[in-house]
Amino acid sequence: LATANTNGLGAQLGFATLGTVWFVTTTMAYKTARAKKIPAHRIWMIRSYATTLAVVSVRPLLWFGPAEGFTNAEWVVLTSWCCWVPNLILAEIYLRITTFSGK
pLDDT (tens digit, 9 = 90+) per residue, 6-38? Predict the structure, then answer.
């Protein structure tokens, strides 16, 4: 989505950052699992799931089209960030308010 997006640099950066964050969180989850660091693995997997859910979050945003006052290009730029950043923020809030003993 980052390289094929024709809605400008903002949309390309939104999807490119999503791809980078997704790759990093999944790689860290894999590394912590291999190192048998289960509590750390859990944390990284929750972050990875949050970024993975961007594909679910982007659909409703695009289906309903631009909100009033936005052009289609502006809406796609906003959507490229809003499909994953709120998910990651909610995941971080969840991680802050929960505990896990790893046993």
Answer: 667 777 888 889 999 999 999 999 999 999 999
pTM of the model: 0.83
Dist CA 93 CA 24 (whole Å): 19
Measured CA to CA, the distance from residue 47 to residue 30 in angstroms comes to 12
Taking the CA of residue 35 as centre, how many other CA atoms within 13 Å lie in the half-sphere pointing to its CB?
A: 11
Sign of CA dihedral 93, 94, 97, 99: negative
Q: How far is CA 50 from CA 46, 57, 68, 84, in A?
A: 6, 10, 28, 7
**Residue 41 · residue 32 · CB < 8 Å:** yes
Say if residues 94 and 45 touch (Cβ distance below 8 Å).
no
